[in-house]
Amino acid sequence: MRRALAVASPPVGSVAPVAAIEDIPVGAVLYGPDGEEIAVGRNERELSGDPTAHAEILALRRAAAATGAWRLEGCTLVVTLEPCTMCAGALVLARVSTLVFGAWEPKTGAVGSLWDVVRDRRLNHRPEVYAGVLATECAAVLRAFFR
Ligand SMILES: [Zn+2]
């Protein structure tokens, strides 16, 4: 989760484009079955002008490109904020085995807050979930952004 937090908030003066600062700081890291980092993603909706450019989606796409496979079985996605319906759906479709998230998102969260997409028994794949990991630190990054 500390790695995901670092991805969410690049250090001041880093190579991140100025526009990236406009994006809500959410970071995601995708780890392979052996624990090796495969891909990272940061929310880039403003930067790319793409409504689907959430941190999780970008990490999943990059991981699939890096491994050459859309099935990410055995992989773990770590993200600083509870995924939305789109991202929760995407990680089910990608067969991600484990989801770890930080802060809860009561307004749009789809991993227990508002919906529970990843534990819907009607779906054929349900990742294991670890919620609220470093939740206070993850929420603090978001609060600082909106201040
Ligand atoms: Zn999302």
Automatic annotation (TrEMBL):
UniProt keywords, alphabetically: Hydrolase, Metal-binding, tRNA processing, Zinc
Which residue intervals define the domain CMP/dCMP-type deaminase in the entry? 1-114
Query: According to its UniProt record, which reaction does this protein catalyse?
Result: adenosine(34) in tRNA + H2O + H(+) = inosine(34) in tRNA + NH4(+)
Question: For this protein, what is any one GO molecular function term?
Answer: tRNA-specific adenosine-34 deaminase activity
Which Pfam family, an example, fits this chain? dCMP_cyt_deam_1
Q: Which residues form the active site?
A: 56
Residues that, per the record, bind Zn(2+): 54, 84, 87
InterPro entries annotated for this entry?
APOBEC/CMP_deaminase_Zn-bd, CMP_dCMP_dom, Cytidine_deaminase-like, tRNA_aden_deaminase
Q: What EC numbers are recorded for this enzyme?
A: 3.5.4.33
Q: Which SUPFAM superfamilies match?
A: Cytidine deaminase-like
What does the record say about how the cofactor binds?
Binds 1 zinc ion per subunit.
Essential cofactor(s) = Zn(2+)
* PROSITE patterns from the UniProt entry: CYT_DCMP_DEAMINASES_1, CYT_DCMP_DEAMINASES_2
Known role = Catalyzes the deamination of adenosine to inosine at the wobble position 34 of tRNA(Arg2).
State the oligomer form and interacting partners: Homodimer.
Describe the family membership recorded for this protein in Swiss-Prot or TrEMBL: Belongs to the cytidine and deoxycytidylate deaminase family. ADAT2 subfamily.
Tell me the protein's name.
tRNA-specific adenosine deaminase
Query: Which species expresses this protein natively?
Result: Plantactinospora siamensis
Query: From which lineage does this chain's organism come?
Result: Bacteria, Bacillati, Actinomycetota, Actinomycetes, Micromonosporales
- Its gene? tadA
